[in-house]
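User: Some background: our group keeps a shared notebook of sequences we're curious about, and every so often someone picks one and asks for a predicted structure to add to the entry. Today it's my turn. The entry only has the sequence so far, pasted here. Could you supply the structure so I can complete it?
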Amino acid sequence: MFSRWSGKNLRQLLSAAFPVIACCCTALLAPAAQAASPWPGGAEVAVVLSYDDALDSHLDVAIPQLDKHKLPGTFYLSGARPSVRLRQHEWRRAAQSGHELGNHMLYHPCRKSLANRSWVQPWQDLDKYTLAQFVDEVQTTNTMLKAIDGEEERTFAYPCGDMTAGGEDVLPELKKLVSAARLFSADGQHHPDNKDFYRIASFDGAEKTAEQLIAVAEAARENHSLVGFLFHGVGGDYISVASEDHRALLQHLAANPERYWVTTMREAVAHLQREQVRNQR
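Assistant: Of course. Here's the predicted structure to add to the notebook entry:
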């Protein structure tokens, strides 16, 4: 019986079978490859560009650069900053053009007891806040921001990365007030499987070169991560990144839309939450 499948017949059988086997293998592997990146349009990475403290350089430099490249930013406003009081119409216009306004509290309170915090004023000392005081300030800032942009949903950035008020964990109460919250980390990456949206990482862009900033975005491609950037001053103010380095990062992101989905924190989190629910079905 074996002789019937020897020689030429066996070679013909294998030749005919190989394309079928290859096709089956491709079909099996394709869903895994597609599932590896959860971002719209097949983008490899989601990028959130965030800016803290409601600084003049955000309105004067960062937003014009973002608008030129048609990229959105997330701006975490502290309500007592002069630019909120004096340039409110410009923040409203920024929100109308697609930028997100996020909650960075009214007075930017931080824990004075930690190292290098001599600049923290007594009335800004988060160590001396009560949890109720923290909650009131977040709620008041939400109300102020709604008066500017009309939005209901808000994301949050922890001033100085501090997550306690008067020694109490703020997270249980904060979850009732905002949809997500941002911290910082060495690589700025939030993995797509991570369901903790109240410790979203970002990379501190202060005094970084364009090459360093772009390298952070490129590194996130391997994990299909949500990668965040944290900026304070842009070409001015304090803890700054040079305007030309900021511009070069935006140029790189805008030139590669198939690689980067640049979005706001609110939209990135909402999309990722939908994807995680879909993958559980």
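Suggested note for the entry: The chain has a mean pLDDT of 90. The chain has two domains: 1-36, 42-280.
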